Amino acid sequence: MSGRNTFSREFIGERTWPFFIDLGVAAALLAGFYAILWIGKFWFSTAIPEVAIQRSPSHLPLYAFYSTARIFIAYILSLVFAIGYGYIAAYNKRMEALLIATLDILQSIPVLSFLPGVMLAMMSLFPSRQIGIELGAILLIFTGEVWNMAFSFYTSLKSIPRELHEAAAINRFSPLQRLFQLELPYATIGLVWNSMVSVANGWFFLIVCEMFPVGSRNFRLPGLGSYLQTAASNGDTQAMVYGLITMVLIIVLTDQLLWRPLIAWSDKFKFENVESADRIQSPILHMIRNSNVIGLMQRRIFTPASESIYRFVAARHEHHIVRKEARRRSRRSTTLIAAVASFAAAAAVIFAAFHATLLLREIHRHELLSLFEGAGATLLRVNVALLLASLWTIPVGVAIGFNPRLANIAQPLAQIAASFPATALFPVILLGLMNIGVGIGVGSVALMILGIQWYILFNVIAGAMAIPSDLKEVSNLFRFSSLQRWTTVILPGIFPFLITGLVTASGGAWNASIVAEYFQLKDKTMVTTGLGAQISAASARGDFPTLLLATIIMALIVVTINRLVWRPLYHLAETKYRLD
Amino acid sequence: MSEPIIRAQQVEKFYSQPSENRIQVISPTDLSIFPGEIVALLGPSGSGKSTLLRMLSGLSQPSAGDVFWHGKPISRVQINVSIVFQSFALFPWLTVLENVEAPLKARGMAPQERRQRSLKILDTVGLDGFEAAYPKELSGGMRQRVGFARALVVEPEVLFMDEPFSALDVLTAENLRSELLELWQKKTIPTQSIFLVTHNIEEAVLLADRIIVLGRNPGHVRTDFKVTALPHPRDRKGPAFTQLVDYIYKVLTRPDVTPAMPTLTPGRKVRDQRQMRYEMLPHARPGGIAGLLELLIDLTGKDTAGRADIYKLADELAFEIDDLLPIVDAATLLGFLRVEEGDAVITPAGREYAESEILRQKELFRGAATEHVLLLRQITRALDNKTDHTVPEEFFLDMLDEQFSEEETQRQLETAINWGRYAELFDFDAARRRFILPEIEESTKAVEDWE
């Protein structure tokens, strides 16, 4: 049989330095084991809510490690949750509408609104252990990472071609085999790209989530975010520079060690009929694929384990393609249970919602008015930020997209820049702005732009690259003026992409308003009128009624704008401005 | 006759509507698959060929009626069937070998045996040496070979094929067809019966031992007969072959009558139960209709009264029947064409239309369309009666909804818009989803142009 495998692609790549590679992989595995031990030891130590942050650079690696571990764990949680949620939403007809609407609302709720509740719950769950505070922080980052991934998985599942589903059904795939051979592979590319966005989001909020007050209590976790904030508060420029360099290093390493191999690997999941010419190369992936250790583990552990699981499932799995008959008979009992369960759930929801509204009664009218005033201010700020960000990203994005050589250089750089959390730069920028006499009212717009510009830029680049060259040739042939070129070719061409970018950016801007409008620096709180600031302040005060109402207002505004503005524009982009 | 492997008894498919009406896709149908035969299922698009295949293979549940597998309800027993899909439906992230192994893995077969059986079947379909390739590295024909291997590796009793050759080029398809026939005839594969859905008449006559022709609105069996007088290998140019192909063309082109069969075992006749307010608009473009008529005149010369065999016509154009029939239907609906005995005959109105210049053509089309097409008449009347001369699309959607499925309603309206625009009966504002009268549109356009 070995003779048959001569064509196998595994043998095409020559094995270079297998010894070094194996040593490297083994070291990485050992290091991973040690890291888990270390984290465990720290978590189960006695709780120190307010850790003193050392500003010497020798502590930075440890802080960076803690922060990265938080991001990583939150990301794993998000991935598992997203897959479960997306799966149920896609296959359970009764729950689908409900689950998707919930997702829509949840992703419009700013991360920090969850903060006091999550923190207090976690603290009371593990009163004397560090793990309580840690889990709180992780759950917060989770809420910033999970929704887009759940959406991505859901839409992937919904768009699996019917014949592939039928092929799985007629070949009696068990749900497990369907998941691993059809659903997960089909969703991989979407999940990988969304993972990059999610992790970037995670960093954005982690930087602010490591140091915060809830009511009278202050929390501070050891980590890169708290290090940066402490450095900024003390005006320690040197420490700030060290912190930022560490941040850049982490981002570049994540890109090289994680994302690039993942993207290169996910290329095989592309659902296309022709092989694409240019592929992303990753030396790390090459190394993993050619490693003896991993190959051995694959052959000795993973393959036999999965085989026995498959056989176990196949033995238990009823081999009926149509199973509705059986279901029909047991329907009566299940309907009863479902009815009772949904009644109980509805009762619980009504009860809780009633109590929540009782909470809202504590809000005075003038507070309500100021909330609306804040909402107006933030709305204005978000739109100004969108406008200003578009003003520079559209021409630059089009220039990059039209020039393949430029795109080759600029795109990876922009990708790294985009994963750099804007919040890490906030203290620096705010200090700079204060020096030239600009307050946080205007400064917060700058901070928002910093957080959202990349979404627009990336999409504009993609849009400009997607404009067919014959359209460009036509505009050259007829000697269009540059105004005419923009209005008849470029803007309509990038429109669908621009809208996608703006939708994402708008959501991001609302969420960023919370950290942009309210910032603690050098023992004083910089604050401006805005809904984001009001949410942050309420969260810090432990003022639940205001926090709840402000969150409701923000979620309502975001959902309404999505429905009334973005969705029609999106529809227009899908129908009128589609280029195919 | 031996016992059928699969027997469908009064199966039907319909979609319930919120209102009283339900949309019938397939009317109650009896159908059996016997061991030792290749059955070909033919029919125009929208006649529910694929739906029927999916009900017989147990992929989808009939709305009413039962399907039996060796006499037992199909949902209670383990059935052994596979499907070859039109789109191949391979998993692009699995290698050729992994794709073929997947069904065996689902059955819990040990890795060693699984691999051996898969390699053997790959050898049989001529894919030796391609085990480690990914489907996207292969040509379409090779990919469909993988599809065949995956379907055959489980040694199915019944092999279903859903237009397996229609995504391939002519030569590749011909090649694969004859290889399949060879496997079947030499009993290289233990498959008992093959059920083939196709819209290619020649393919059906080339392969099948039994041919079933479906009609549409709703789907029903028009005729079901055995191909007896044609031993394999069948000669495409032989008189018995062309006669049979001609006969099936006649059945397909004349939905109202079932013509007499030449020297063939007759099958069951099923009453065509169509009582519809709207005639179904064939999805043809006005340009296509004019093109067909002009071609008819060119082909036959001025003297022979513009008569041509539709089968030959399709051949001449290298058209599939599915592409040609809507155009023929549309021309017939408008009174430009008559269909007699599988021949298309151009009418005087059709001749005038074909020979006029473009503006006159539009005028003639307008006249014919308003006379023969109820939907177009209704749209123009509604537009005339409204003071602002606009009517929302929904108005007509609601009316059509009672008769057609959601998808078909959309297509009906699209065709109506297409025809109406060409005939300058009305225009359609896609942004506001409203029908508008052309004069008004023209005046606003003029203003716009002026600016």
Topology summary:
The complex is a heterodimer of chains A (580) and B (451).
Chain A: H1 18-43, H2 60-91, H3 93-106, H4 115-125, H5 130-158, H6 162-170, H7 175-209, E1 211-214, E2 217-220, H8 224-233, H9 237-266, H10 283-289, H11 292-316, H12 324-329, H13 331-360, H14 365-402, H15 404-419, H16 422-435, H17 440-466, H18 469-477, H19 482-516, E3 518-521, E4 524-527, H20 531-541, H21 544-575
Antiparallel strand pairs in A: 1-2, 3-4
Helix pairs in contact in A: 2-3, 2-5, 2-7, 2-9, 4-5, 5-7, 7-8, 7-9, 8-9, 8-16, 9-10, 14-15, 14-17, 14-19, 14-20, 14-21, 15-17, 16-17, 17-19, 19-20, 19-21, 20-21
Chain B: E1 6-16, E2 22-33, E3 38-42, H1 49-56, E4 64-69, E5 72-73, E6 81-84, H2 96-106, H3 111-124, H4 140-152, E7 158-162, H5 170-185, E8 193-197, H6 201-207, E9 210-215, E10 220-226, H7 239-253, H8 286-300, E11 307-309, H9 310-317, H10 321-333, E12 337-340, E13 343-346, H11 348-355, H12 358-372, H13 374-385, E14 390-392, H14 393-401, H15 406-422, E15 427-429, E16 434-436, H16 438-450
Parallel strand pairs in B: 3-8, 3-9, 6-7, 7-8
Antiparallel strand pairs in B: 1-2, 1-4, 4-5, 9-10, 11-13, 12-13, 14-16, 15-16
Helix pairs in contact in B: 2-3, 2-4, 3-4, 6-7, 8-10, 8-11, 11-12, 14-15
Describe this structure in words.
The complex is a heterodimer of chains A (580) and B (451). Chain A has 21 helices and four strands. Chain A is mainly alpha-helical. The two termini of chain A are 47 Å apart. In chain A, 37% of the residues are buried. Residues 1-16 and 322-329 of chain A have low confidence and may be disordered. The radius of gyration of chain B is 25 Å and the shape is globular. In chain B, helix 2 (96-106) packs across helix 3 (111-124), helix 2 (96-106) packs parallel to helix 4 (140-152) and helix 8 crosses helix 11. Chain B has 451 residues and is of the alpha/beta class. Chain B has helices at residues 49-56, 96-106, 111-124, 140-152, 170-185, 201-207, 239-253, 286-300, 310-317, 321-333, 348-355, 358-372, 374-385, 393-401, 406-422, 438-450, and strands spanning 6-16, 22-33, 38-42, 64-69, 72-73, 81-84, 158-162, 193-197, 210-215, 220-226, 307-309, 337-340, 343-346, 390-392, 427-429, 434-436. In chain B, strand 9 (210-215) and strand 10 (220-226) form a beta hairpin. In chain B, the strands form four sheets. A six-stranded mixed beta sheet of chain B has the order 6-7-8-3-9-10, sandwiched between helices. Chain B has a four-stranded antiparallel beta sheet with strand order 2-1-4-5, with helices on one face. The longest helix of chain B has 17 residues, at 406-422. The interface between A and B is large, with 49 and 46 residues.
